[in-house]
Amino acid sequence: MTATGKTYGDALYDLAAEEALCDEVLEQVKLLARLFRENPQYPALLTSPDIHPGGAPAPDRGSADRAGTPLSCQFSVPFV
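Below the sequence we write its predicted structure tokens.
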């Protein structure tokens, strides 16, 4: 686990405990873990430089051969 991941996890747990939402958050984390297990390419999609937050297309890197491919389309990631 990275230091950033631990910090995020600790903060998520602290907030869930404070709001009495530990069970609900645990179920959501389990769902996310299952999503990543069943779709191993999804984490790579989330960190792809071709995908910008908010679904905006990435700036053109001068590669015309990507035109029309799925990664050149606009994406909207629902839970980022």
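The mean pLDDT is 74.
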